[in-house]
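Appendix C. Worked example: Tetratricopeptide repeat protein
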Amino acid sequence: MPVVKPVDWAFGPEVGESYPTKLPPLRGDRATLVMGKLARPGATAVTATVNGLVNGKPVVLTLSQGLPAPRVEHFFLNLMVAQWKNAPHKDAPAMLQSDRALALASTQVKLYRDEFLTQAAWAVSVDRFDEAEKLYAAAINVDPTDREAAQGPRSWPGCGPGSSPRPSSPSA
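Step 2, the predicted output written as structure tokens:
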């Protein structure tokens, strides 16, 4: 299987930003994870041109990949792009195979969201509404489409800063 060693490359105008900023060698038998944000929302495909070398000989690859429709369960991709964007070495390729990196990120980010929601529910149950609000905000930051996080402490009747969800017990 030939390996293309990219010399330079460019996405089409539909792409606003992409990571890694330097392509690793491209193999025909392995997927290469490249992530980014679209400059043109609603684009149906992403195009790229890669100038590289195969066994020392120049080649030009013209690539095109159709894009799936946006799906709510892909919320974790925004965090992956943000992580790469904030990384000290934006030119470093993904350390895992693309399918494994995506599966790992999906699971990990869902666990983050669930942990924030669990802690927020606990905070509400012990009348720590300020902490609950912060935890719900953290869950929304992870998954902006999560309904439970969006409802936050408002989902319990009578809850909010300065109020208690449980009736007061008589003093002894």
